[in-house]
Amino acid sequence: MDSTKNDDLRPASPETPVPAGIDRRAFLMRNAAIGAAAVMTGTTWTPEARAQQAATEAGAQQVAKAAAGGDAGLKMSSALSPDLDVVKAAKGPVMTLVDEFYKVGPGPSSSHTIGPMRITYDFYQRCAKLPADQLAQATGLKVHLFGSLSATGKGHGTERAALAGLVGKEPATVDPRFLDEMIVKPDQTYPVQLGGKTLNLSLADIIYDAPKGDFPHPNTMTCQLMAGDKVLYEQEYYSVGGGFIEWKGYQPPKKGAPKYPYATMKELRQHAENNNLSVADVVMANEVAVSGKSEDQINAFLDKIANAMLATVKTGLSYKDDVLPGPIKLHSKAATVWERAMDEKYESDRAIGLVAACALAASEENARGHLVITAPTGGSAGVMPAVVYALTQSPRAVPMDKIRQGLLAGAAVGYLCKHNATLAAAEGGCQAEIGVASGMAAALIAQTQNSSPQVIENAAESAIEHHLGMTCDPVAGYVQVPCIERCAFGAVKAWTAFMIATNEIASRHRVDLDTTIKTLADTARDMNPKYKETSEAGLAQNLTLC
Question: Residue ranges of the Serine dehydratase beta chain domain (predicted)?
C-alpha cells in the first residue's frame, strides 16, 4: 500500500510540530479527531491542512476555556437563553401551525441538517440585499458551528447541509444526491452569485468550532460575509429543534388569534368537550384562525404530508440488506422484518412486525440522508409514518379524511411538547424526539378511531410517559444506533398506548398529559449534558467500532 495516499487517515504522530502558544494535548486531540472524521465522511486532508485546522480549533477551545475559568468552567451548553422566542412563546397560547411543524427535508436530523440548511439559505438571502458597495468587498462566506452542531455535526452531515443552503438549496426541494456528491467530492467548489460577482465556496468554509461553551442554545451557529480576514456582515442563528430556526433579535411572524386558545392539554380538552368537538376539530379551527388559510388549503397540505410519509416507508422497504452510510457499516433490516411478518409461520407476530418494519424503513431512509418528514424531528421520522402506513395499507384501511384528523391530533400533542418542554435532543435527550413522536402517533391512532378527547390524551400520555429519561447517545455521531430501532419501538409503544387507553375506564387514568410534559421538561433540565446529542456518553462512549 502506498502510504502517501493515506496521510489524511493517520492520526498525528508525537513528532507532529505543535504551533507556538497552542496546548499540545488539545492540538493532538483535534488533529486525531479531524483524521477520524475524514474516515467517516470521505474527506481528504493533507497533513499540513490538518495541522492548520487542528491549530485553529485547539486555539478556539483554549480561548473559550480561559473565558470559562479553565476546565472546571467549560462544559457542554444545555441551558437556553431567555431571549429565545422558543422560551418566550411558552408564556402564551399555542401558535404553531401544521405547515411549520410538519416539514419535508433531508435526513438524518432536523436540527442538524434541515435547520442549518434553512439558516444558511436565510443568510444568503440577507446578504443579497446588502448595499452594493459592501458586496463589492466580499470575498467569501463562512459558517461557524458551535455546541451540539459542532460535537456531532460531522456524523449528521451538518457541513454539507450548511453549504447547500449557502448555494441556494432548500430542505424540501434539495436532491439528496447533491448532498451525497459532496462526500465523493469533498474538495469541490460551488459558485455563488452575490452582488454581481462570483464567490466560490467549499466544505472548508463550514467550520466546526467550539463544542463546549456558554451558548444561547445548544445548537448555535454564526454566518459571516467576509472580505479577506475582515467580517463584513455577521448573523448568529439557533437551530432550536424540529427544523425550527431563530436568530439573534428574532421576532416571530404576525399571526391571527386562535379561536380556541390553549397552552395545556387540559385547556384544549375543555374546548373540545364544552363545544362538542373532537381534538382535531379544535386544532383545525385554530389553524384557520391563526394562519388565515381555508380548511381546504390546510387539508391539501395534510394530504401532501401523509403521502410523503407513505412514500418514505415504501422507498425504505424497497432496499434489501444494503449498508447505510457511515463508519458503523449498519445493514438495513426493514425489508427483512417485513418479509418475516408476512410469513404465515409468524402470523401471530404480524401486527407488531409490520409496524416495526415500516418504522425501520422510514428511519433508514432518514439515515441515508433522503427526504423525510419532521414528526416532530428527523431522528424520530420513522414513528408516525409507520402508523400512517399501517392504518392505510391494510384490509381495514381508514380513509384519508381520518388520517388528516389524526395528523391534526398528533400535531396538538407535538405543539404542547414544543410549547412546554422541547423537541430538541440537544436540549432534552431522545425523550424529546422518540418520546414525543410516540405520543403524537398514539394520538393520531386514537383520533382516527373516533376516540374521545380524554382517550386521546390518555394514549398520548402513556406513550410519552414510557420514554421519559431516554438519552441521546448516537454512536459515532450518526443517527443509526440506537436511533433507527428506537423509531420501531416508539411506533409499537404508540399502538400499545392506544390499546391500553381504549381498554380502561378513561376517567380512571391517573397521570394527565400536562404532568407528563412537565416531567419531560424537568428531566431535560436535570439530564447530564453528556447525554444530549453529544456522543460523549452512553452507547456512543461504550460501543467500540471495529
Answer: 100-248
